[in-house]
Amino acid sequence: MGDYAFAEPPVISLMSMSTRPFPVRRIYCVGQNYRDHAKEMGGNPETDEPFFFMKPADAILQNGEIMPYPPGTSDLHHEVELVVAMNMGGKNIPPEKVNDMIFGYAVGLDMTKRDVQNAAKQKGRPWEMAKAFDFSAPCSSITPEMYTGVVAKGKIQCKVNGELRQSADLGDMIWGVPEIVHHLSRLVEIAPGDLIFTGTPAGVGPVVKGDKIEATIAGLEPLLIEIG
Prior knowledge:
Radius of gyration: 17 Å
Number of strands: 18
């Protein structure tokens, strides 16, 4: 233990099939990466370049847990996403090198205070309080790439209380994982332990206390949480 002013915070990690826990360094998210969702959010998927925002590592909510309904909002939304876990990194990573740097994949939810986000957009202010709040990044255990191979296609869905809200194919992403990581690595240095949320399909919507969310991606562990 180091000689710090107070006890250092614990390492945030996710379980990983047949391996040791995966320590989370940073969480990056790409916005509006499915055409229909970009349109429902007012974007233009034909011209817009990929853009990114972040969540803190301790925004992780483990699979099967209850997510407390966050303060400061009356319009909490679900957004199901493929999560890419990196075990290598660097700057200016060529797209053709990206798949060799991936540790594995998981199912994530980019929980969003939509009313707070819309107000911030209207005033040209940052999104942090709409995206980076406590428990805003529920995530399943990671399935290592050695079991899945490269994940580029497959059904992605989100159900609330058994009702299907979001459904698409990973192949519908505007920018695939190699392009996302390439663009991101031109802005920051990616490192082992980074998680990248790769965008959500259309159909995002509100949840309330007591709702049960089931987020699934073909071949990966399902993510199940409840809003408390």
